[in-house]
Amino acid sequence: MRMKSFIGLMVILAFMTAPFAWADEPQGGPKEQGKGYGMRGHHGGAGHFLRHLLMHQKEIGLNEDQVAKINAIQLELDKTRIRTEAEVQVAERELDALVPDAKADLAAIEAKLKQSGALQVSLRLAAIKAKREALALLTPEQREKEKAEHEKMMKQRGEHRMGERKGMEQGMGQGMKPGAERMDPAH
What we know:
By secondary structure, the protein is mainly α. The chain has one domain (about 1-150). About 80% of the residues lie in helices and about 0% in strands. The longest helix is centred in the middle third of the chain and has 35 residues, at about 65-100. Residues about 15-45 and about 180-185 have low confidence and may be disordered.
């Protein structure tokens, strides 16, 4: 009976933590995403939002004080992310050592699972707070300008992706495998 409860808890925790790993996944390769434990995704939205504000500060109309505060929020979020991801790695490593040990107490395993989950929740909450704190700095007009800049960027990204798809479709239509380079017949 106790093993069924443990397995049920593992399944529930797996479903609860899966969205943290995949939600709002950052774009780009590993160098762009950083070398975290794989949790950047659940707060990547907040980090992306802060970078977006700073990158488009002129278009949005941010003043020096707002830029300084947004930079401070971003720094605090980064520090929190780095510390929390390290703590999660340690908890997960300790869990990995406990699980294969048939003599390990199930209560200790459960405690490590809960510790890891609680750390991930705290990091997600920190990201939500950071984004709200940054939004509170903006005037209603700046919020509208930010939305317009974001929509413009998303439209450009969509057009770029559409162009990539068309190029792939054309290449595949000529008997090419995906990822293969097209050969110029003149060469």
